[in-house]
Structure prediction request, 242 residues.
Amino acid sequence: MASSSLSSLGPLDGLLLVDKPSGPTSHDIVAQIRRRFRIPKVGHGGTLDPMATGLLVILLGKGTKISDRVMGHDKTYEGTLRLGIETDSQDADGQIVAEKDAAAITAEQVAEQMNARLGDQMQMPPMVSAIKIKGVPLYKLARKGETVERPPKLIHIYRFELLDFSPPDVRFVVECTKGTYVRTLAHDIGQSLGAGAHLVQLRRTKIGQLDVARASTLDELLARPSLDDKVIPLSAALPLLS
Prediction:
């Protein structure tokens, strides 16, 4: 965005960092902020699944013009996968499709699978996702029981570490490029270990240099009379997204 444009910005042109609760969709939160503060142009810089919590970047006013820049940044997540249970959505919101005994799996085996996924790889997007095939979101086809061919996507995993092993639950941290499905990582690890797995908890902690530690909860924001002192102006946000 040109410097001349920055000089004409208002107090509500910028970024708002929200610590998303579990339950609502990213679109739900955009709608609530738009309605509560009567801001005509509101968007977000990268969706989170309804189950997920953590950093959701809300774009206000002219901030909506840098959505691609926000979404293009690397992400950091903390999460928990559960061994022994596979679901059709690869997370806890789906229906159980398989159960196996995972008692013999060790922390070392899990860590080995995480290390094996570092670097570049092609990832198959899950059927329960918003990716469109011939204009139709995959999740709509999945609801009808359909499975279709979908092209794998190139992703990069910078860091994938085991934080805690409390069978059948595995807590981890992963740093990855945009477009990475963490629930698919959990699913694939379960497949490689022969026991199945699904994601039961996910929290996004960073997008580039933007940290959830700077975010406000949705309830805190909606209770405020104004967002003026919570908005990161574009002049301050752009260096964080360079």
Notes: The mean pLDDT is 91.
